Automatic annotation (TrEMBL):
Protein's UniProt keywords contain Flavoprotein: no
Bias type Low complexity, positions: 10-25
Lineage summary: Bacteria, Bacillati, Actinomycetota, Actinomycetes, Kitasatosporales
Domain Orn/DAP/Arg decarboxylase 2 N-terminal: 69-311
Annotated family: Belongs to the Orn/Lys/Arg decarboxylase class-II family.
Residue span, Orn/DAP/Arg decarboxylase 2 C-terminal domain: 313-407
Cofactors that this protein relies on: pyridoxal 5'-phosphate
Pfam families, A to Z: Orn_Arg_deC_N, Orn_DAP_Arg_deC
Top-rank taxon, per record: Bacteria
Organism: Streptomyces celluloflavus
Name the UniProt record assigns to this protein: Diaminopimelate decarboxylase
UniProt KW Aminoacyl-tRNA synthetase keyword: no
């Protein structure tokens, strides 16, 4: 599904030019939300940048995920969709997703604390992390949280814990099927030398895994997450296929269904070029169904760990343009959204390009002929640009820019450069009559909080230390 071309030459002058195709309904909702956010001063002179989340959109994506797997799984198959908390580490969002039937995948004590604060039960929480401490493991086992061990040393620690106290926690092993990487090296976790899981194709590794399971009747799960963003779907399916084949082999050797659950990871890529949602969960589930026919037979419970694909399309960074200037003949809009909210885009622009939409001072779509310009952030380094040479209606000071598709891994994953405060985050919903209501998800960080986090309580701590 692709919307009409939204170029100045093709589209009506109602939507902001993003230089790409957009879905009209999504665009209308977003335009209304931007207008209302400006009118209600969620952004303004005091708060020059904010994150906005489309709550109906998030609910829709969660429902699509569940429906996609429901369509293919045998009735009664346990399926847990555990949202990867790192994609949007915001407690109200985790609770919303829980209401929509999702659990949480956590990878640190902080993420676990957020999931618990959101009220996500232990039985719907999965702990994956390559560096779990003994204390984290002990807590997870005591709470009954599913744990996927990353490596032989971690498994040995779990041996000790299981021997010393009984646990109801489902325990699994993460494997790396080594099927290769995707478009973005840093996001590819199934390369030959990836740091994650047990490298299944290394010499002797497969036999080691089989033996490790046969020796531990409580090891009942296998887990693989082969990458995030930029992974071809066929390669993802190949990773799941490898996981399934391994489970079959273990169960055959064990003479019983020891491995009862397969954790397929997340990683469905997101389209950052337009409002079209592609690929869809249904396409992916359908592909898995044909590539790994036994997967949905009901012989295995399933866990998924999607993050970006649930949230990305539903988030917008809204920022004021502080100044408009030019250098070397190039117009530059100096805005309040840069590396602190769009870290990956700024540092690795080729891998993470995002759409930018232009709005005027009142938050109405800005119109005008496209002019190639730089959209800069507030950080004090030259590369702090969210878009370079991007054709957009010429921005003026007091205007606004919206960074689209930023609901996952952008404003929720703030980077504290230049001591820029974490922006406020607001959920919105549009009523049938077009009015927009907001709810605060996260208040903007105050300068007091920021100073406290920077050691204000220890201002005197260095006094005299190291003096002669
Ligand atoms: C990051 C991560 C995910 C989520 O990846 P997305 O690309 O956001 O879907 C899932 N599982 C694990 C183990 C991860 O590290």
């Amino acid at each position: 599904m692709t919307g009409p071309k939204n170029g100045p030459e093709a589209g009506p002058a109602t939507g902001p030019s993003t230089g790409s195709t957009t879905d009209p309904a999504t665009r209308t909702d977003r335009d209304r939300a931007v207008r209302a956010a400006v009118a209600q001063r969620l952004t303004g002179p005091g708060e020059p940048v904010a994150g906005l989340l489309d709550i109906a959109g998030i609910r829709r994506s969660a429902a699509e995920l569940r429906a996609a797997f429901d369509e293919f799984t045998a009735p009664g198959t346990p399926v847990l969709h555990a949202f990867a908390v790192k994609a949007a580490s915001l407690v109200p969002v985790l609770r919303l997703l829980a209401q929509e039937g999702l659990g949480c995948e956590v990878a640190s004590p902080g993420e676990l604390a957020l999931a618990r604060a959101a009220g996500v039960p232990a039985a719907r929480t999965v702990l994956d992390s390559p560096a779990k401490t003994p204390a984290e493991l002990r807590e997870a086992l005591a709470l009954g949280i599913a744990v996927n061990a990353d490596n032989p040393e971690e498994l040995a620690r779990i041996d000790g814990l299981v021997a010393s106290a009984p646990t109801t926690a489902p325990l699994g092993l993460r494997v790396n099927p080594q099927i290769g990487g995707g478009r973005i090296g840093a996001m590819s976790t199934a390369t030959d030398t990836s740091k994650f899981g047990i490298a299944l194709r290394d010499e002797g590794a497969r036999d080691w895994v089989v033996r490790a399971c046969l020796d531990r009747p409580w090891l009942t799960r296998l887990h693989a997450h082969v990458g995030s963003q930029g992974m071809p779907l066929a390669l993802m399916a190949e990773g799941v296929r490898a996981l399934y084949d391994l489970a079959e082999e273990i169960n055959e050797r064990a003479g019983r269904a020891q491995i009862d659950t397969l954790d397929l990871g997340g990683g469905l890529p997101v389209n950052f070029d337009s409002d079209a949602v592609t690929p869809t969960y249904r396409e992916y589930a359908g592909l898995l169904h044909s590539a790994v026919p036994g997967l949905f037979s009901g012989r295995y419970g399933l866990v998924t760990e999607f993050g970006r694909s649930l949230l990305a399309k539903h988030g917008t960074v809204l920022a004021r343009v502080e100044y408009a200037k030019s250098a070397g003949g190039r117009p530059i809009a100096v805005t309040h959204a840069g590396a602190q909210v769009a870290t990956r885009t700024v540092f690795v622009p080729d891998a993470w390009p995002i759409r930018v939409a232009a709005y005027d001072a009142e938050g109405r779509p800005r119109t005008g002929p496209p002019v190639a310009q730089d959209i800069a952030g507030p950080c004090c380094f030259a590369g702090d640009l969210v878009a370079e040479n991007r054709p957009l209606p010429l921005l003026a000071s007091g205007d606004h820019v919206a960074l689209l598709d930023t609901g996952a891994y952008y404003f929720s994953t703030h980077f504290a450069y230049n001591s820029l405060p974490r922006p406020g985050v607001y959920g919105y919903a549009t009523a049938p009559d077009g009015t927009v209501r907001f709810a605060t998800i996260r208040t903007p960080q105050t300068l007091e909080e920021l100073t406290a986090e920077s050691g204000a309580a220890h201002a005197d701590a260095l006094h005299g230390l190291g003096e002669g």
